[in-house]
Specification:
Radius of gyration: 28 Å
Shape: elongated
Distance between the termini: 78 Å
Strand order of the largest sheet: 3-4-5
Number of strands: 14
Order of helices and strands: HHHHHHHHHEEHHEHEEHEEEEHEEHEEE
Number of helices: 15
């Protein structure tokens, strides 16, 4: 290892400006090959650690958790490494090409993503020669395009079950969610045809429901909103399985001083899964939530824990729903079960939690109101909406 480190130090010290274009490309090709070989050794070592339960040495159960906690890998990347090590045990030709630097980690993942342990077992049961596929994949990976390898891997599925029993759709369903340093989440999923139809129908039902007029966002943005709304609806229903004696819910921790301060306060509130949000976002979530008071000592140890209480009581919510019926933001008719009860004057600033200080707002427009828009109920009982610049949003022809 020390020799490898020294060689890398020497590479880093080289003056790249002295290279010709040809030399730059040759150097790039060599580094790609070297990176492939290092990736292959990492995967081989992690697999060995998995088989020998090496992570127990540091008090962890799996090599995946060790990679996340000690090597600071993203959970998805750690899973990819572990999965590759398991699959390469069945593919000696591809493993050799990887170790020689001719195959990339991304190409290995193309194969590993399709070759589950269940599929390997089924191939053995059906007498399918996995070795022949291994040789073909290694050859294609070393000489052809990335897409060509994907096509070749698809042929394995066709050979595995050309006209046999209907496969179990749950075996191929996968969902990845990766949280970034700013707390945002990126994800992707793989679904069979029937499951994909269910997901599309659920998303479409919300996208096509009564939504704000003039919504010119992209379809991807609308789908993202609909996905969050599905989660909101399910969490609010109270029907999800219990998590260690409590119903699943969004958890936010924030100091009282930051909560009552009207400033945006970026990076001041912590969430249950580790994300950090602004005080302004925390105030938005606190509009219609449950509050617990915790008094902390100077050493960071909780001294007193107050009772959890709901800001908006079930009775008040029913009254607001009966009065408003749907989201009160101009042009929106999102149903009441999509909506939060918004405090027109936030309770942290002295606003009362009563019918007169409440408004029903969907998740999108609740956010808008916390970012400068304003809703107000006039003496005649009609809700009106103003933009941040003070102009009113009017529906229909302007008079």
């Amino acid at each position: 290892m020390s020799e490898i480190q020294s060689a890398l130090d020497a590479l880093a010290a080289e003056d790249l400006h002295a290279l010709t274009n040809g030399q730059t490309l040759e150097r790039t090709a060599s580094l790609v090959q070297l990176a492939n070989r290092v990736a292959a050794e990492l995967i081989r070592t992690v697999r060995h650690g998995e088989l020998t339960q090496a992570a127990e040495h540091d008090g962890l159960r799996t090599m995946r958790s060790w990679l996340i906690g000690h090597a600071r890998f993203a959970p998805g990347d750690a899973s990819t490494i572990v999965r590759a090590g398991r699959v390469l045990e069945h593919l000696p030709a591809l493993a050799t090409g990887f170790a020689d630097g001719e195959v990339t980690a991304a190409q290995v993942d193309v194969v590993a993503a399709k070759l589950s342990a269940a599929k390997v077992a089924r191939a053995q049961e059906q007498g399918i020669d996995l070795g022949a596929f291994d040789q073909d994949w290694a050859t294609i990976a070393a000489a052809a395009s990335h897409d060509a390898l994907k096509d070749a891997v698809e042929l394995f599925d066709a050979a595995l079950d050309p006209d046999g029993p209907e496969p179990d759709p749950t075996e191929g369903r996968q969902l990845w969610m990766v949280r970034h340093p700013d707390g945002s989440v990126t994800g992707r999923f793989d679904l069979d045809a029937a499951a994909g139809e269910k997901a599309q129908a659920a998303i479409e039902s919300i996208v096509q429901a009564s939504r704000p007029k003039g919504d010119e966002r992209t379809r991807a943005q609308q789908n993202g909103d609909a996905f969050v709304q599905l989660c909101d609806n399910q969490l609010a229903s109270g029907d999800l399985p219990m998590l260690r004696t409590v119903k699943p819910h969004v958890v936010v921790s924030i100091d009282l001083d930051d909560l009552v301060d009207p400033a945006t306060g970026p990076g001041t509130a912590d969430m249950g899964f580790g994300a950090t949000i602004s005080a302004a976002r925390a105030r938005y979530l606190a509009c219609d939530g449950s509050i617990s008071r915790i008094v902390m000592g100077p050493d960071g140890v909780p001294l007193d824990l107050g009772r959890d209480h709901r800001v908006v009581t079930p009775g008040l919510r029913r009254a607001v729903e009966r009065r408003d019926g749907s989201c009160v933001f101009a042009g929106c008719r999102a149903p009441s079960h999509w909506c939060d009860v918004h405090h027109l004057v936030h309770w942290v600033h002295g606003g009362e939690t009563n019918l007169g200080n409440s408004a029903l707002l969907c998740e999108r427009h609740h956010t808008k109101v916390h970012h400068g828009f304003r809703v107000e109920r006039d003496p005649g009982g009609r809700w009106r909406t103003w933009r941040p610049d003070g102009t009113e949003i009017l529906l229909g022809p302007l008079l």
